[in-house]
Amino acid sequence: MLYFFMGSIVFGGLFYLYATHPRRMGKHAERKVAKILKRFDGFAVNINDVLIDDAGKAVQIDHIFISQYGIFVFETKQYAGKILGAEQDETWQQVLCAGRTKYKIINPITQNKQHIALLKKVVAQLNNVAIYGGVIFSHRAELAVSHKYPVMHIDELKPYLDRFKDKIFSEVDIALFKQAVETVCEDASVGTNNNHLQHDFCPECGAEISVRETLFLKETYVVCENDRCFYKENLLIN
Description:
Blueprint: H1 2-19, H2 22-38, E1 44-54, E2 57-67, E3 70-77, E4 81-86, E5 91-96, E6 101-106, H3 108-122, E7 131-137, E8 141-146, E9 151-153, H4 157-162, H5 171-182, E10 185-187, H6 194-199, E11 209-213, E12 220-224, E13 232-234
Parallel strand pairs: 3-7, 4-8, 7-9
Antiparallel strand pairs: 1-2, 1-10, 2-3, 4-5, 5-6, 11-12, 12-13
């Protein structure tokens, strides 16, 4: 009985570590967003988790949603804690442990806007097409952000999309846009891309990485989001 009890504790602990791995939780949030987009009313195409080459650097885009009501590019974040910032800020702040731990994170609005600009640059058919953006957080984040740009929790995504009432694209348009986008995209979920790992994921464990700055020493560095991984690299800013 004792061995069974101890074994249950060990198994439970291992399962918890597996289930709460940062990259797994991030992918879980992306899957929830993809599921909502898949159930969207009307004819639409959802392209998830792709890489686009930008001068030798692989850039990941979480969701490209092509519908009769418009084209949308969404960035999904799984940060926990309180998120502070404003749309024009270079970085935002993540507050954990009742305010005892604070980190700087890249402004995801800026990141999303850059993804849209890149998509327009590499897909000629989208040059003169309006593309709407949005940043989506999981329920683990408490948002305290000043913004006009769409920033929302996952459960706010469908109401946001429902606000678009006018059909501006035909099914033929959507098929042509999909084909054009897919010609420049690589599936990020297939295989390993070394350039992508260098820029977006931890090279040691594969979890997300972020740029942070210590509040006292003003040291800027790249750190792994997995609290069980010790990867850290100083970032030199000219």
